[in-house]
Amino acid sequence: MDLKYDVTIIGSGPGGYVAAIRAAQLGHKTAIIEKDKLGGICLNWGCIPTKALLKSSEVYSIMKKSDYYGVTAENVSFNFKNIIDRSRGVANDLSQGIGYLLKKNKIDLINGNGYIIDSNTIKIQSDNKDTTISTKNIIISTGARPKELPGISFSEDVWSYKQAMIPNKMPKSIVVIGSGAIGIEFANFYNAIGVKVNVVELADKILPNEDDEVSEYAKTEFEKQGIKFHLGSYVNSITKSRDTLNIELIHNINKKRSKLNANKVVMAVGITGNIENIGLEHNSINISDGHIITNEFMQTNVKNIYAIGDVAGAPWLAHKASHEGIIAAEHISGIQTHAIEKANIPGCVYSSPQIASIGLSESEAKNNYSSVKVGKFPLIANGKAKAISNDAGFVKVIYESGTGELLGAHMIGDGVTELIHGYAIAKNMEGTEEDIMNTIFPHPTISESMHEAVLSAYDIPIHYK
User: Fold this and answer.
1) What is the set of active-site residues?
2) I need a labelling partner for 193 at 20 to 30 A (CA). Which of 51, 82, 340, 384 fits?
3) Do residues 204 and 96 share a domain?
């Protein structure tokens, strides 16, 4: 193996492997360094396997109410081990697929931990031996890891997202700390298969980053399913008595104490970048609050060292990481590339119902613009949603009154994570309300609600008043 490269990427998550492929496409001799499985957290312990788990719980939920659809299914049950095994199988298959893509693009895969000696030298630390490679450019894509609360560490009883994905047996009850996307998805999965679920959230609403109306609607829907929420509260302590965990809560304002009991706790209170043991301090690379500081082209203060994905800061989304990987590879190549506009990055929560959003919330828009138009269309008025009996939810859009600029879009309902890209394209192309109004949406589809929401913002809805 020739140990001289044009571009070397540390980490093979959705940012790293995409950056490697794009660099190779642009004619660079490329290597990728990975100390674990290809695909990073997203593919192995995040985005992909959690969707497999949620699909299993969704099928189980549908089967339990199959009589409603005229289908008889008796003695519906599930095999918890098989659900977990299927999830792991999906992750393993896709990890192998990345290996195929690297080979196809003639990218060298080097196993081990990458440590930056200087801006052109990386030491590969592995069990067998240490190897040194030279490189013209470095892209850091080391990802992030889950945070712990002060005084509360991960253990066999207090799970990280990884532990929550591969338990040896199904708990009877869990307490989820944190109601962001990760916490809500695990709460949905475990609740759907019969586990008693309580969710503790420090903020005064669930899904703190979502539009207020979406958060409130989601809370109501989740409560109907049996999930209980404890808002404006934090976990003060966790003690164990035999097989039961005693979780003490303190209300954030009135300081009132309360207690919950559970078999396990899932701690989902955010992530912090993997910035340790990769040579950042040694090379005076600027960091702040657990992530690497970059410019709009993902370049650090050391001009030939780039950082992408979770290690480069929020939003912590796989698709953002992948796009940053492309930007970094193209900037290295001297291509006049574009910077990411963070307001144009969609976010999704794969709960039931699903949640998807892009841009400003209604309150943010009203705080930043003098005049906005807000339109909302309920899925109960959509023919396709009624036909498939998944009519909970709505689509909401926010426009700047004078220019017709799409400021934000928010959706909650069945399958909306597959629809948000429509608004993402419109926003990225700086489309106005007229562009969507003049677009013909296929019938019958839930996507028609996107059209109707825009019409509603301008007081001309067709199917709802």
Assistant:
1) 443
2) 384
3) no
Q: What angle do CA 463, 388, 379 make, to 5 degrees?
A: 35
Distances 150 to 63, 248, 342 between C-alpha atoms, Å: 42, 14, 30
Q: Strand, coil or helix: what is 74?
A: coil
Q: Distance between CA 159 and CA 173 in Å, rounded? A: 13
Walk along the chain (465 residues) in steps of 10 and give the mean pLDDT of each run. 89 98 98 97 95 98 95 95 98 98 98 96 90 97 96 96 95 98 98 98 97 98 98 97 95 95 97 96 94 97 98 96 98 94 96 98 97 98 96 98 97 98 97 97 98 98 91
Q: Are residues 238 and 195 in the same domain?
A: yes
SS3 content of the chain, % helix, strand, coil (to 5): 35, 30, 35
State the total domains in the chain: 3
The residue from 244, 269, 294 where one domain ends is 269
d(CA 100, CA 97): 5
The verdict on residue 463 lying in a domain is no
Q: Taking the model in full, what pTM does it have?
A: 0.95
- Classify 182 as helix, strand or coil: helix
Q: Are residues 25 and 129 in the same domain?
A: yes
Could you tell me the CATH number of the domain that includes residue 411?
3.30.390.30
Q: Is the dihedral of CA 142, 145, 151, 157 positive or negative?
A: negative
Please indicate, yes or no, whether residues 237 and 139 belong to a single structural domain of this protein: no
Range of the domain at 89: 4-145+272-332
Largest CA distance in the chain: 70
Return phi, psi of residue 436, to 5°: -80, -40
Residues 299 and 168 in one domain: no
Using alpha carbons, select from 108, 112, 139 the residue that is nearest to residue 123. 112
Please answer whether residues 365 and 356 qualify as being in contact, where contact means their C-beta atoms are separated by less than 8 angstroms: no
